[in-house]
Amino acid sequence: MKKILFLLVATVCAFAACEPVQEDISNGGNITVDELKAKSSVTVDKAPNGQNGNVITCKTSAPVNAKWNIGGREFLGNYAWKKMKLGDFTVTLTALCADGTELTAEYPVKCEVITNALEKYYIYGDVANHPDQVPFQPGAWDAAAMRFSSTEGAHLPTIPDDVYFGLKTLIFDVSDVSPDFDLKVMNGWWSNTYYDHVKWVSGLNELEITETLAKECAKGGEGRDLDLMLYSGSMTLNAVYYEE
Predict the structure, then answer these.
(1) Mean pLDDT, residues 128-149 taken together
(2) CB of 98 within 8 A of CB of 65?
(3) Which of 29, 65, 118, 120 reaches 20 to 30 Å from 169, CA-CA?
(4) In sequence order, which residues have a C-beta less than 8 Å from that of residue 65 and are 6 or more positions away?
(5) Strands of the sheet with 65-70, listed across from one edge
(6) Are 106 and 167 contained in the same domain?
(7) 228 vs 22, 144, 146, 188, 202, CA distance in Å?
(8) What CA–CA distances, in Å, run from 52 to 86, 187, 237?
């Protein structure tokens, strides 16, 4: 009798302990693209006139390792947001499931008006706060002229690690670019070339910091310093900054 009673109690306890969990697919380690999209959202803030603003917000509650790509910059986690320039973009969500399956979902986004202006963060050329950071003209094959090093460069300061590992997009404000302009993007040890035979125009030109570039050039990495060198031509470098 005691055995029967014990079994009945154990059975009741077992049922009481197993609370049902809706849509719990984490144990199975498998999720479909439709399920991923159902648990994820990409939104844009709104201006008072109803137009899309320029702040993109991304969320997912899917039980996956999530990676968002917003405007070429990657964010890990179930939440991400970024201020953007105006234009059409495609936000990509890459999800790695527990069983190793990789899924991708894309979200077209249009940013129509500025609701949250991008801020400039200067690496060089903030003359209001650094009067010595004046425009200059680097010479061809002068590797020290545009080496981002406070100790081994001629003009440019060392780029902080959070800029490198944040994979920022550097914006170069240049003028007086000659028709034969030709640029090499490397590190200060000449051991790797990241972009070769780059052609710039007068105005704003972008340079994306990649994971490899960050690892090799950051002081918290191999400490080789980002280095830009002219093969030929000339220009005036006015400022270097990124926007957030």
Answers:
(1) 95
(2) no
(3) 65
(4) 76, 95, 96
(5) 73-76, 65-70, 87-96, 102-111
(6) no
(7) 55, 9, 5, 9, 17
(8) 10, 40, 35
Considering the domain architecture, whether residues 55 and 95 belong to the same structural domain is answered as: yes
CB 240 within 8 A of CB 228: no
Return mean pLDDT, the chain: 88
Distance CA 69, CA 73 (A): 5
Domain final residue pick, 87, 111, 135 = 111
What pTM, to 2 d.p., does this model score?
0.71
Domain extent at residue 166: 120-243
Contact indicator for 44, 71 with CB cutoff of 8 Å: no
Is-contact 243 121, C-beta < 8 A?
A: yes
DSSP assignments along 118-187, one per residue: PPEEEEE--TTT-TT---B-PPTT-TTTEE--TTT-SSPPPPPHHHHHTT-EEEEEEE---TT-EEEEEE
Q: What region, left, alpha or beta, does residue 117 occupy, with left being phi > 0 and alpha being psi -120 to 50 degrees?
A: beta
